[in-house]
Design a protein that fits this description.
mainly alpha; Arc Repressor Mutant, subunit A; Four Helix Bundle (Hemerythrin (Met), subunit A); three-stranded antiparallel sheet; disordered N terminus
Length: 220
């Protein structure tokens, strides 16, 4: 990827997307400083383009710029996690409740579940975590809204940063592999109302688990 591809703003948005995807896959640690020189070289873009991509992610809340130090992956707070789960309940539950039977995204959810189950057997919890992100992305895709899909990628990036900060991938993801399977079965059977109710309970449980883990770490 080079700066000759498209205009500067479009390229910066694409680079922001690449960085966002790295956050979603757990490739960056909260509090980690991002090297402008290394990333510009790795992504084959100018520093000006990279700075614009940083600006986009800073605005979204996944990165922060500390004066005289540089750009860092933002360390999540309890209040930010509460907000992420508030957004998830509004978006994911509605998407599932209103989904059309046989929607193609249900197959995507099934694929994500199978990847998580295979990774759990190894076990490779980072891969399980990424498959979990893909599962919830598939749920939002049930709404058939490109705008929601784009917005939700940032929500997932914030969520994955929080998960990585807790250093307990198995504790966070193991309980939900089976629940993702159960939700997918309900979707495959066209039982959308039941799936939405189950997802409400699921998200409340996940929120309690994450907040309890933050509490044990003394986060505030």
């Amino acid at each position: 990827m080079t700066d000759t591809e498209g205009d500067g703003l479009d390229l910066a948005e694409r680079i922001a997307g690449v960085l966002r995807e790295r956050l979603i896959t757990g490739a960056a640690v909260p509090g980690e400083q991002l090297s402008e020189a290394a990333l510009a070289s790795d992504l084959e873009v100018s520093r000006n383009t990279l700075r614009e991509a940083f600006r986009i992610l800073i605005h979204e809340g996944t990165l922060e710029r500390i004066p005289n130090r540089g750009v860092f992956v933002r360390v999540p707070s309890v209040s930010s996690i509460l907000d992420v789960f508030r957004v998830r309940r509004v978006i994911e539950v509605a998407a599932v409740r209103e989904a059309l039977p046989k929607h193609p995204a249900i197959a995507d959810a099934r694929d994500a579940v199978e990847r998580a189950k295979q990774a759990q057997e190894i076990p490779e919890w980072t891969i399980v975590g990424t498959a979990n992100m893909e599962f919830h992305s598939a749920l939002v895709s049930l709404a058939d809204s490109p705008r929601l899909n784009i917005f939700f990628q940032n929500v997932l990036a914030e969520l994955r940063i929080a998960f990585v900060s807790l250093h307990s991938a198995e504790h966070l993801h193991a309980p939900f592999v089976e629940q993702n399977e159960e939700l997918t079965v309900l979707l495959e059977q066209g039982r959308m109302t039941e799936a939405a109710a189950e997802l409400e309970t699921y998200l409340a449980r996940s929120e309690r688990l994450v907040l309890a883990s933050f509490g044990r770490m003394g986060q505030s």
